[in-house]
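Hi there. Long-time user, first ticket. I'm pasting a complex I've been working with (about 858 residues overall). I'd like to know whether the download I got is complete or cut off, because the file seemed smaller than I expected. Thanks.
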Amino acid sequence: MEIQPVKGTRDFYPEDMAKRNFIADLWKQVSLRNGFAEYDGPIFEYLAMYQLKSGDEIASQLFAFEDRGGRQLAIRPEITPTLARMVNQRINALPRPIKWFSVPRLCRAERPQKGRLREFFQWNIDIIGVDDCLADAEVIFCSVDFLSQAGLTNNDVVVRISSRRLMAALLGYFGIEKEGLEKVYGVLDKKNKVPQEAFGKMLEEVISDSSKRQKVQKLMAVESLSQLEDFAGSDKNANQAIEELKQLFNYLNIMGISEFCKFDIGIVRGLAYYTGIVFEIYDKSEQLRAICGGGRYDNLLADFGGQKISATGMGMGDCVLGIVLEEKGVFKNLSQKNGIEYFVALADESLQNESLKVVTRLRRAGRKADFSYKGGSLGKQLKQASAANAAMCVILGEEFTQKKQLVIKNMDSGQQDIVAVEDFFSRLG
Amino acid sequence: MEIQPVKGTRDFYPEDMAKRNFIADLWKQVSLRNGFAEYDGPIFEYLAMYQLKSGDEIASQLFAFEDRGGRQLAIRPEITPTLARMVNQRINALPRPIKWFSVPRLCRAERPQKGRLREFFQWNIDIIGVDDCLADAEVIFCSVDFLSQAGLTNNDVVVRISSRRLMAALLGYFGIEKEGLEKVYGVLDKKNKVPQEAFGKMLEEVISDSSKRQKVQKLMAVESLSQLEDFAGSDKNANQAIEELKQLFNYLNIMGISEFCKFDIGIVRGLAYYTGIVFEIYDKSEQLRAICGGGRYDNLLADFGGQKISATGMGMGDCVLGIVLEEKGVFKNLSQKNGIEYFVALADESLQNESLKVVTRLRRAGRKADFSYKGGSLGKQLKQASAANAAMCVILGEEFTQKKQLVIKNMDSGQQDIVAVEDFFSRLG
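Hi, the file is complete. Here it is re-exported in full:
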């Protein structure tokens, strides 16, 4: 019986796993140094949870199933609903602010395409319980901290920032009704993603009044924060939202990442639950979807049955990111870095047991060590050591039989040293 | 709307995640130092793959679903079928032996009970392409290496070892037909798990001939390898299987773990695919299910449409293991170990921007650093630092305003040093 993997899923052979681990390990490391604590939830939850607030696109892409108890379940397409559930469950016991991160495996029944798969990993960071846009700045800083730690610069990526709060205030000020706002957001979110003409047509469908529509079109052509004040007039909400954006850019400057960041009125975000600052990060080639996106969602905990507590966060998937990192050559030499430290080889088959003892002692001392099952000539074993990217070879031969000495061969330089067994191990510490 | 988690799944709050990471990180570390490379597969695969060889118990516990393309899929209940599929796909390109490990998330629709959940994590290690029982010894060594690295000794755990090959040879020698063997294995596997009387009754159901049954019952009372030879008589297969077990114990002795290991005729393993050495590890209190189990499965790759290539491996779940480690106090002080390194506090609110710069520099230098969003008095901030298990506090106050100096407070000893900002950062490296 010949079995295939399911389309849109990935097999992680060791060389693929090394790339996945490079990303996930760095996500974790950067999260921890920025003061976030790791959490996780189950891979499946009640279906109803994802139909509540995830937005139509995600809700239509669920892998849903029924268990034998008749429960309607689904594999998680995102982790934010789980986060909201978990925080609500313990809201009175958790010290605030809650700064949490997670690296969940997620599944969406999408049509597989470049940068989109049916199964992927997504870094999530969230700060719950802070109103100040310093929290939004910290989320953006943390995302940029990861990207620059991975080797990318402001020549490679750009953070595009706007504000749902600003957009809501201005659209209200223009006289657009609250009821239709969600549809309008959906269209505005497409501004950078579809040709100008198509954008105009989509806008016509959601804003029939041509004078209102013209105001919105003029607004969407704004290129800097300073141009916004003309639009806001004396509207208090709009002016507050502009002040908040200015304060955010001030924080980003203090944090030393302003060269990565740009105001962009076209950033609206597809998901229904955003309420304040929103941002997306793109690679500068502009050929790919967003590397990551996030923003403030002050109503979500209440929507999930909890108190109204302010929150802001970010999600970064591994698919688009992986393409960008691959293009920039970040994954080069990973197999060397992941190679074993000591390969123990035999010049004399009668030393097999002794060699096994050396391998075991190396492992017990915390060193990555291996040996050849096939055995054969020393040359063959050294070849196997090279294939395993071994840094050093430990050879047991005549010197061992006669004087309990090991030959230590540096596989890079070829240099050989002869060391007494006990000296070798005591130097390892 | 109030939403619950699904029964049998777990929420990993940061303190639970710290335990899960303690286990998973050590699984990875021990695998790597023993020369295994990490792989992974998708969380769901074709349902048919799990119905093929997983055994009735697992096949009856699948979370199965249909996608919109009408594909019959299931969340993975084990990773061995994926391993077989992946190895078969690239069998001619992969250098042998293949020494791989994985730490998959798995789901089984079981009734949740102590040590058994519907979602869990399982460490898997496998060696493919080695006939010699040295590979079985290495798998056992690796399991024990993890347990002792986690802090357990041979007073806490025991490895019970037997051989399917031996059992097959002896049962054949006793005249039991090959066709009924699978059912007989199922019963023999229960020897250590049910009362003696119940075991006798179960045996009657699968071996009707009383003289054959008596031979089997006598065999199952054997307590040491040396007693086996009387049963084997002149049967070549049985004697070879005994020799192999002796050689295995010889290897385990060379590897220095014989005090953990014990021959136990009652170890048969439930799964259908085992063909040689089999083993299970138990905590010595005998109150729990096996911590881990494994063995040789030489036909599995062929069963999945590949070549016949020998293989041996092991699986260790996190549920029973977690209970044992908790009981032994291994998880103590994890939150201290995971605390942040530097908490940056302000004695003067006007220094907020300067403090943010210090936090950012610490993070950029790879240090786990955080600060207070709430601010307030220095005392309040130091309290928050304690709650975050901070090792050190960095305080910006008068000394900073006047001389660009930081107060560095050791949170453990309470000792305070005053250091110039640039000296502090240059010492960090």
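A couple of notes from our side: Chain A touches chain B through 89 residues (CB under 8 Å). Chain A has 18 helices and 17 strands.
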